[in-house]
Amino acid sequence: MKRFINASEDSVLETLAGFAACHADLVAVRLASKVATRREALTAGKVGLVSGGGFGHEPTHFGFIGVGALDAACVGTVFSSPSVAQILEAIQSADAGAGVLLIVKNYAGDVMNFKVAAQETAVPLEVVLVSDDCSITPQPGAQGRRGMGATVLIHKLAGAMAQSGASLTEVARVARKVSACSRSYGVALESCVTPNTGKRIFDVASDEIEVGVGIHGERGVRREKFAPAKDLVALMLEPILMELNLQPGASVLVLVNGLGATPLAELYLVFNEVKIILEARGVGIARSLVGSFLTSLDMAGTSITVLSMDEELLRLWDAPVCTPVLRWGM
Amino acid sequence: MKRFINASEDSVLETLAGFAACHADLVAVRLASKVATRREALTAGKVGLVSGGGFGHEPTHFGFIGVGALDAACVGTVFSSPSVAQILEAIQSADAGAGVLLIVKNYAGDVMNFKVAAQETAVPLEVVLVSDDCSITPQPGAQGRRGMGATVLIHKLAGAMAQSGASLTEVARVARKVSACSRSYGVALESCVTPNTGKRIFDVASDEIEVGVGIHGERGVRREKFAPAKDLVALMLEPILMELNLQPGASVLVLVNGLGATPLAELYLVFNEVKIILEARGVGIARSLVGSFLTSLDMAGTSITVLSMDEELLRLWDAPVCTPVLRWGM
Question: Residue A196's pLDDT is what?
């Protein structure tokens, strides 16, 4: 499979080096440890926000570092959690005396390493576990639901709360509210190609799609026949709307997220279908975000995230933000 | 080929409807005519900026409408020029009494329709023809070089000049300077799929790439063996640097542009290779832009654009801009 890479083992560092050079005005990347922080000095007394995960989700995680969002992030190898040492370094870097919020997507490796780091640090912490993927029915003893697009929303919304000077308890409350009030669902048209093997992880027939995919190249929960966009969107939205139990008059934020190889034009078309369905139910789209924000290497596919909004979340969403990916109000 | 679309003939309007709903705060889209304008009223006496072209290049053209950039744009069908009527409507919409600059990429259909519109309107006009693709050696009587990434840079830089209150002559001077001082080169790993046929326009062998591609799904100027990113970047940069004749100490803006299906992580890796080559030649990267800004449907590939910078262009680049795609300084 053809990709713009050199030796596969150099991909992560070479990508991060490019990111670092491109966004040096906002983000300071430490290539040796693959930990990145805001360019400017920490604000004493501000709660720190730390996120992280495997490589292959760009622009997540480093793209959300900046004013009104993350203070530090760390990235592992392809689809693998950062190490405990990396997480500890990120926590130290984000600590400005008011404690740190750890934003952890619910994947086994991430949960384990962030948990160990949380036990080893002396910095006061809160941890929010992101598990917004509603394609999975939680089973006793299983890992449960995966973290998806809500991660992006928590970076922004809890980030705005921290920037406003709120306490660690308050910042964690907002992060948990976003996690509780949002649901995501993803479908893939094609698997991604891992740099290590140069091959697709799985094959999808030309008339089929993979339904209920996460962001680590894994198979979905089932396979369905390929269909027009409006049917695929209905398939994704149905479980989201059922779980969020949105009534006419409700107000939501919609994130239509590309998984890597799906062009922006198609994401706008998907967003249009989301809008048609929500309008028919009397649900208003208060804010929206369309683009490839949380990817799975070069997977062709999309995920939809819906967050039930209230006054507080609206205010936090509109608050100034300045990161490589999200920039407004300043 | 699987895509997030419904009936292929509805793709353009459904995509624009999604864009319109997503960016209603900044851009007003008239779906009936496929012409879009800034949301806020025109500033009397400001030079208007109009751009346009075929569909399939998203976020170009509508994504660059806003403060410090375009005032109006129009879009045709897939890879086809907007009509004379659309262009005339865009000119009228952008006219605030100080004349209008037309930004036209050098493709036969676009040039013809913009030319006719320019003859038919009473609005004082300047026209800049963008032809930065240096993979083509101009031949007498032929169409010549195609417009590529410089289009994006002109939207921003001439847009900032117009926003500063400069005259039509001055705004056109900046646009022509950008066009003269920039070069682009593109390569494709895979062809794009047209919505009409659902098929790739051409096939590229698994160990080959298409060198010197434009943004309309056409074949490149030649075929080469697939190679590591650093070799592909050298292949693209070599003719650019030769033509721009950059000396040690020179300062440039680099745009690494994805053609549709190439994920952001790979674009950062490409940017890293550009940086390595430029540093070795003593050329400094003053500003950079990495992302998918001017696409060719879902083509897998990238184009590199280099603009030779001076004090004026640096000031104009850093000036505030607020569009769906570019936002900073405000």
Answer: 81
Rounded Cα distance, B263 and B302, in Å = 10
Name the burial class of residue B188, with classes exposed (0-12), middle (13-18) and buried (19+) by CB atoms within 10 angstroms of its CB: buried
Q: Domains (ranges, CATH) in chain A?
A: 11-180 (3.40.50.10440), 182-317 (3.30.1180.20)
CB-closest option in A261, A275, A302 to B263: A261
| CB < 8 Å from B in window 59-118 of A | 59
C-beta atoms surrounding B17 within 10 Å: 20
Helix (H, G, I), strand (E, B) or coil at A102: strand
Helix, coil or strand: residue B10: helix
pLDDT at A139: 83
pLDDT of residue B144: 86
B57 labelled catalytic: yes
Distance from the Cα of A264 to chain B's closest Cα (Å) equals 6
Contact A263 B263 (CB under 8 A): no
Indicate the pLDDT class of residue B141, thresholds 50, 70 and 90.
Answer: confident
> Is the pLDDT score of B135 beyond 90?
yes
Position A88 scores a pLDDT of 98
Average pLDDT taken over every residue of chain B: 96
Question: What is the spatial distance between Cα A93 and Cα A96, in angstroms, rounded to a whole number?
Answer: 8
Cβ neighbors of A279 (< 8 A, separation 6 or more) are none
B4 touches chain A (CB under 8 A): yes
- Which tens digits make up the pLDDT trace of A290-300? 999 999 999 99
Sole residue written with tokens 């890879």:
B79
ipTM greater than 0.95, yes or no? yes
Q: B212 phi and psi, to 5 degrees? A: 80, 55
In chain B, the residue whose alpha carbon lies closest to the alpha carbon of A323 is: B328
* pLDDT tens digits, one per residue of A239-250: 999 999 999 999
Among partner residues B229, B268, B285, which is closest to A19 by beta-carbon distance? B268
* CB proximity A292 to B under 8 Å: yes
pLDDT, tens digit, 9 for 90 and up, residues A201-236: 999 999 999 999 999 988 999 999 999 999 999 999
From B13's Cα to the closest Cα of chain A, the distance in A is 9
CB–CB contact A260 B260 (8 Å): no
Helix (H, G, I), strand (E, B) or coil at A75: strand
Identify residue A173 by its one-letter amino acid code.
Answer: R
Contact residues, chain A, for B54 at CB < 8 Å: none
User: Could you give the 3-state DSSP secondary structure of residue A209?
Assistant: strand
Pairing verdict, β B300-308 and B251-258? antiparallel
Q: Is A17 on the interface with B (CB under 8 A)?
A: yes
